[in-house]
Amino acid sequence: MSLHLEIVTPEKKIFSDTVENVYLPGADGEMGILPSHAGLVTALQPGELRYLHQGKIVTLAIGSGFAEISQTKAVVLTDMALGEAEIDENATEEAIKRAEEKLQTIDHSMDAEEVAYLQGVIAKQSAALRFKRKYQH
Amino acid sequence: MANLRDIRRRIKSVKNTAQITRAMQLVAAAKMKKAQDQAMAGRDYSSQLNAVLSDISANFSDEVSHPLLQTREGNRELVLVISTDKGLCGPLNTNLAKKLRADTSDTADYVTVGRKLRIMLEKLGKKILADYSVKDPVPFADARAIAALLTKQFTEGNYDKVSIVYTRFVNTLTQVPEVKQLLPVLPPTQSDETGLIDGDSADSLFEPSVDEVLASILPLYVNFQVYQALLESRATEHSARMVAMKAATDNAKKFIKELTLEYNKVRQGAITAELLEITTAMKAME
Measured between alpha carbons, how far is A111 from B148 in angstroms, rounded to an integer? Predict the structure, then answer.
């Protein structure tokens, strides 16, 4: 039994191959997926995704999204998936600052969707930043 | 017979036109590559999203409801029309307009992206709720803003149905105008998309719960449908423009060739006539 993992973002397909296992940041906490897992659809929160591919553990920072898991296949849909090298610490900090500033200026009662979006951006970028600091050499 | 100077002037003007169309062709070709890549990349995500949604829809029974799934009686329709800002892109907008007339209701109101069809709709005296201009390359934030407006109009009950009219990208030479229903969301059926889970998907687990998964996936789905439609339209615009401009450049080149031939004939004729005059004059002097 094998597990085929696909990681897709709106910009491109990040990864598509057979893996031994995968760990996802689910909405209710981290979950580990092995081959023959029961069918599952879960929301993902921004955090860290790990998978074991050809004997090597690969880690990525991912944004919010979904994962659909069947017995032989795991599909991860997310708005961001970056490796350690791809994250620019300064740029990420800038993005968080910008989003926070914007969050201050808009009217929270009027524009609920915009607020939710900005909070999403902050959560996503913060996850990327934590990830970068954790794995930085 | 046309005189030499006229022909020279025409050759020059056709050459100028050819230069412009050639420049436009090159610009469109460069943009086309980028837009096509973006549209193709987006398809992966959107087809996976469709697959997930169709698997979920196989699971949800009647008790699961969400405002975006609600089918209502009545036929007040809101149509998002995605055309181009600029012309010179072949029959793209004309075909889109034909499709629009054929497949959407006459009493519909409109939200427009792109100047060309907005002007047409204004002339027809249709009600245009909003008009957006979308940057190139398409930013996701623009799609989000448009989707937010459409969703709001639908959930507030102003309209019973929201559709998108856009041009789907097939390849550089082929573009197909298409009408797609956006709201209420019609969960894609298994046959359209390759479902991930086969057969016994009814046993899937949902985390945190079906309702919550649905509540976050549906708005994303709507946003993404709009985004993908914008990307495809943009890719077709640049492709169509490149093809149209290539045809124009080729025509101009052909025209220049014909005119040059004509010019040389006239010139030769003039020289012959002049020689003849000189020789006759010489003969007369002898």
Answer: 11
Chain B CB contacts of A113 below 8 Å: 148
Residue A66 belongs to what domain range?
Answer: 3-82
What pLDDT digit, counting tens, does each position of B54-69 carry?
A: 877 776 655 567 788 8
pLDDT per residue as tens digits for the range B215-261? 888 888 898 899 999 999 999 999 999 999 999 999 999 999 999 99
Alpha-carbon gap, residue B264 to B2, rounded angstroms: 12
- In this structure, what CATH number is given to the domain that contains residue A8? 2.60.15.10
Give CATH superfamily name and number for B21-244.
Answer: ATP synthase, F1 complex, gamma subunit (3.40.1380.10)
Q: Whole-prediction pTM value?
A: 0.82
Q: Cα B159 from chain centroid?
A: 25
Q: Could you tell me which residues of chain B have a Cβ less than 8 Å from any Cβ in chain A?
A: 38, 41-42, 44-45, 48-49, 51-52, 55-56, 140, 144, 148, 196-198, 200-201, 203-208, 212-213, 216-217, 224, 227
Stretch B181-208: mean pLDDT: 63
Residue B31's CB is within 10 A of a number of other CB atoms, namely 19
Domain count, chain A: 2
Interchain contact A29–B (C-beta under 8 A): no
